[in-house]
Amino acid sequence: MTSSIKKTYCRVCEASCGLAVEVEEDGHGNETIRRIKPDDEHPISRGYACIKGTTLGGIHHDPDRVNYPMKRINGVFQRISWEQAIQEIADRASAIKTRYGANALGHYSGNPSHANFKNILCTGDFIKILGSRNLYASHSIDLNNKFQVASDMYGVEIVHPIPDFEHIQFFMCIGANPVVSQMSVISVINPLEKMQSIEARGGKVVIVDPRRSETASKVGEHLFIQPGTDAFLLLAMLAVLHFELNFSVSKVDKFADGAQELLAAAKQWTPERVEPITGIAAADIRRIAEEYQKADGAALYMSTGVNMGPFGSIAYWVLQGINYLSGNLDKRGGLLIPEGALDWLGLAQQIIVNDPDIVTAEHGWQQVAGCFPITALPEEILSAQPDHIRALFISAGNPVHSTPHSDWPKAMESLDLCVSVDIYINETAERYADYVLPATDMLERSDFPLSHLPLQSEPYAQYSTAVLRAKFERREEWQIFGDLLLAIGAPLVSTKPLLILSRINAVLKRLPGNMLLTPDHLLKLLLAFGGKASLKQLRAKPEGIKLPPHEPGSFLTKRLKRPINLAPSRVLSDLPRLTAYAENLEQGRSAKSASSLLLIGRRSRKSHNSWMHNNQDIKQPDSNYVYIHPEDAATRQLSDGDRAKISNGDKFIVLPVSITTDLMKGVIAASHGWGHQDSKNRKSRRLSGENVNRVIPGGNAHMEPVSGQAIMLGHPVEVVKLVESVASS
Ligand code: SF4
Fold first, then answer.
1. Sign (positive/negative) of CA torsion 507, 518, 109, 57?
2. For ligand 1, is residue 182 a contact (CB within 6 Å)?
3. What's the 400 CA to ligand 1 centre distance in angstroms?
4. Distance from C-alpha of 278 to C-alpha of 144, rounded to nearest angstrom
5. What digits encode the pLDDT tens for the residues 578-606?
6. Distances from the Cα of 446 to the Cαs of 455, 476, 519, in angstroms?
7. pTM score over 0.85
8. Does the beta carbon of 50 lie inside 6 Å of ligand 1?
């Protein structure tokens, strides 16, 4: 028995915390994870990691993992060989493609895919190499608006200015709860500590949220806001800054076009008009705007609590506009645009291609970051077009569980072929997959945080080799999709790395030796030509290498390829919807009835979307809860622990009640990702929580028009005390 410590990093969220994994080897090739600790030697995380990272062993050793290719035979999954799986799937996909055309094949890529550089460089091209337009991705569940607005304003989806936490004096955080779920579209370690140090040096932190979150209870001034109205707050702040405080735009105007259109859009949203919409007093809006302006370095930040509401794109546009017009963009003490270990900005412009002429068949949704929005998928499957989707490949995703749409069952049942590539048989696969192919987990593959390079608050590079050999017959996704590609029949010549590697490997496999070309070779090349550290250097420092700090001013003067577009037409065209929303409220025509409450989400430190509840090493609560204000509870005779029926039309769920003054009146909160009773995964199926997506409307009418972002927050629901036992609908 030997034991060793291996360095790696967690790939659950953008923080990418360094981990030290103690692995025991029994002398017969069997490896066991003894312990995972935060890595004290990691140059950025310096001994910080949350429970999700330190319990990854519970996923690696989970007896419910899928370990072999499985085929549904007479309704039951049975083990088959890899050869049989690849050939049968390829034969069926190929027949569909020949008969109906390439667009009849679709691919959905779930959340963990973004943290796997091999998926970014290779797997994402699988369906496109086959000639299909139909690639869908999970970023349309919670951040399509950010990608779309960045693309429209900066010309590339991955520019998301990062607050210079070490120097800012004012930080406003809207719709985020970093204490529980870190920060999204920012790679930053221990954001609470960062925010507390702003206060410690005399600066100001403002948290805007319909709930006094765990973050708001520990740092800053908290402002309650009506769900879905953040865009109005930001517009009112801009109106105050420019029209009342004579916020000068002249000194930065040379790097951008469209400032006057942006300012004109803000003009009507005075704090007095916005107060009854947002629930934030006009005096507070003015005061916050003044504090922002007076600060020597300020940053505004918003996250999923805004993204998933009705006006996520408008909000992000205004927020970016304020950050820029105030002179805080690309400034020490404001917001910086990281370069990363290699020119990912340049690379992204080659990899992420959105052809405006390529749209979904049914409602003409465009691609965002190269992918269509996921809640458009059921309608694309059920479309009457002859080449509608008939075969669906799903990698690291659970779309039926994770997104709202009443047509999911009908759509999925109509497919001729459904293949899930995953580490678990999740709810989507359990019900609808014909085949499930076992993927490696993050500890079983080498990796590099490619997608997070432009998001790093402190620049660094880290390459992790695989900590463990892949157990059983688990395989890496790029290999699975490469094999499928060749078996289905791909073009002979392509510039796409997935096909090039797969074709070369098909030859190498016939030769003696175990030589294979992998995406790691591609990474080595990318780092060799223009990287700030070579792969050899990174291999020598497995805990990671700190890179020189971001250079303020370098983005606007050197890296920006064209002026920033402060008046993107796509966003401007959505402004009438915003005005109509306000006018409906002002004229008493709200979609919310007198008795309904607005449903928002709430994250948990112990879970991540829908795939952490079976982790053997995390003790979960028995259920998700509905959180409700005491006055709303009292009018419904609800007490703590009662069961409440939450309904939207004829759909309802039942959740235990938790009464809290941390929520604003008129709002309820519940965590997503629950409701695993249909799963065969033994731990999660015993939990009694419910899937909130059952009471959230989905589909075309509930997608944000600018980006196709699913609108999942702020919908009115009815809440009553449950006095009898019923099954959820
Ligand atoms: S904060 Fe937690 S989930 Fe995120 S990378 Fe670190 S350990 Fe993983």
1. positive
2. yes
3. 25
4. 23
5. 999 999 999 988 778 889 999 999 988 88
6. 21, 10, 10
7. yes
8. yes
